[in-house]
Amino acid sequence: MERVLAFRKYLILGFILLIASIFLARFFYVQIMVDKYILSANNNVLRYMTQYPARGLVFDRYGELMVYNEAAYDLMVIPKQVKKPDTAALCSLLGIDAEEFRSRLQKARAFSPYRPSIFEAQITRENFGFLEEKLFLFPGFYVQPRTLRKYSFPVAAHAFGYIGEASPEVIARNPYYRPGDYIGISGIEKSYEEVLRGQKGMKIRVFDVLNRDKGSFRDGKYDTTAVAGIDLYATMDVQLQQYGELLMTNKKGSIVAIEPSTGEILCLVTSPSYDPNLLSGNIRKKNYAALLADSVYVPLFNRALMAMYPPGSTFKLVDALVGQQEGVLTPETRYGCQLGFAIGNGKKVACHPHPSPLDLIGAIQTSCNAYFCRVFKSIIDNHAYPGTRKAYENWRKEVMSFGFGKKLGIDMPGELNGNIPSPAYYDKYHGVNRWRSMTIISLAIGQGELGITPLQLANFSATIANRGWFRTPHLIRAIGKKDSLIGEFTTRHQVAVDPRYFEVVVEGMANVVTAGTATGAKLDSVEICGKTGTAQNPHGKNHSIFIAFAPRNNPKIAISVVCENAGFGATWAAPIASLMIEKYLKRTVKRKDVEERMIGGNLINGKYDDDQRKQRDLSQD
């Protein structure tokens, strides 16, 4: 009997010890190993506050700060904690009515009664001061620090781009983003989002029932620190950008300038434009809607990357190079011109008066249409190829090696290919084996189906400046450190034309400015090489186009200027380009009369006189 009692005693004692051990183990696990259970148990007084990092800054090529951050605040709401708020007082502080208040609160409840969501986004630092004093009166509401993007200069809106709230689609495919997070929507803000955004952190704060902050939970043991975004060093010269936008006041078009040796974009002007500060903060949605609705000026349209124009006579330089490469043209080749080139049935491609016959340099200088029609015809009718189609395919391949008809790969979203028509297009339009060089002769003078972007024109100018190669145009030269060049932009792209054929074209371009169709672009002490273009426009007045680079040797800048509906290339585009070159190379402009005339010209509303700027007898291009 005693043995049975002893066994029972030890059994009971063992059971008690087992239960005690289980409780102790569970207590240790909850208290020490997984403290997160404590956080869940106290969730009614704990607030998880995302720490948003400051986005990286953006500097211009000389270290001028262009894009920075300014303190802002999001008013957050946890619907379940909202207890009979003084609606009128809060509405007054936020500048909304009671109906809007109820709508926002209902939207927050639909998202989650227990999780915070944004009630009022990006409150400025000034307005936050008034709200902060009264916030304790509104249980369930608290403020989340953020930053606003600000711009030191009201320029380069299309290059910078803007940020906005991440869409549900972005959130679904990228776990980094949560509702209420912001992301780059366009421009370099989008291209370099992962570099600029940094890394979010988290702080857990304790709040009492009166919505008062009682400090960090567990002295910040569970907090994580936000990591700021990385700074970008842009290729842009902000002073040149400002000047370009000033010259394009009341004009539609673009200016793109590139440093030929590096591919660095010195300015990217698209006009009309807007102040980038308009799309920053809680005014963004309202301003974006207004800009989007502007069908006259279309300020959101990035003409530099997305507008496609017939290049006009600037394209003659392509055939001057390809013709030499194909062996059907030499610098001494001479053709006559009887005010045009006959294409049959009494029709002809017209030309303006000039000396005749001309060699290649003279034809570039005077921009003779007849000369380059004959050059193009000799390329397409070249007997070295078994028929028109093969010759055209080869011509197209060589043309596209200059970066036409495809994206150049700039570090910005939205770039378009442009268009160099394929043989299949002509087969479809004219019929297989039913088109010849004369059928597509308009390509010879940069017309017809050609579509070239201003960026491609500037890159073409840089390619000639380099005598046959280019680097991918880009807006950001370094990430994090000013001298840490981005490797992918250091590769040289060689075109399909031998470098020895470029010098005669350069000579012709120099003569264009000294004695040809663009004497208005001449600049003392700097030899500018350029080419005018007048692009026919079926929808209205012709487009004025000019490409150039300077100086002739060891060039520092290559440029394209497009002024829509502005007439001859010599009238507006050429003087604007020469002013930009003067500004960049000299840092100041002495030709104030030309500057005032270009700034004052209103080409959008047609308040100018074409005859005012015509060159004596060579401005017909």
Unreliable runs: 32-36, 38-44, 608-619
Shape label: elongated
Strand content: 15-25%
Distance between the termini: 124 Å
Structural class: alpha+beta
Q: How many separate helices?
A: 21
Total strands: the figure is 20
* The CATH homologous superfamily of the largest domain: DD-peptidase/beta-lactamase superfamily
- Cα gyration radius (Å): 33 Å
* CATH C-level of the largest domain: Alpha Beta
Descriptive notes:
By secondary structure, the protein is α+β, with helices and mostly antiparallel strands. The chain folds into two domains: 178 residues, Penicillin-binding protein 2a (Domain 2); 376 residues, Beta-lactamase. It has 21 helices and 20 strands. The strands form six sheets. Strands 2, 3, 4, 5, 10 and 16 form a six-stranded mixed β-sheet that branches. A five-stranded antiparallel β-sheet has the order 12-11-20-19-18, with helices on both faces. Strand 8 and strand 9 form a beta hairpin. The termini are far apart. 41% of the residues are buried.
What is the strand and helix layout of this fold?
Layout: H1 2-33, H2 36-41, E1 46-51, E2 58-59, E3 65-77, H3 87-94, H4 98-111, E4 117-124, H5 125-134, E5 141-151, H6 157-160, E6 163-165, H7 168-173, E7 182-184, H8 187-191, H9 193-196, E8 201-207, E9 213-216, E10 232-234, H10 238-247, E11 253-259, E12 264-271, H11 284-293, H12 303-306, H13 316-325, E13 340-344, E14 347-350, H14 360-366, H15 369-380, H16 388-400, H17 423-430, H18 454-465, E15 469-471, E16 476-479, E17 492-494, H19 502-515, E18 529-535, E19 543-550, E20 557-563, H20 573-586, H21 592-600
Parallel strand pairs: 2-10
Antiparallel strand pairs: 1-8, 2-3, 3-4, 3-5, 6-7, 8-9, 10-16, 11-12, 11-20, 13-14, 15-17, 18-19, 19-20
Helix pairs in contact: 10-20, 13-15, 14-19
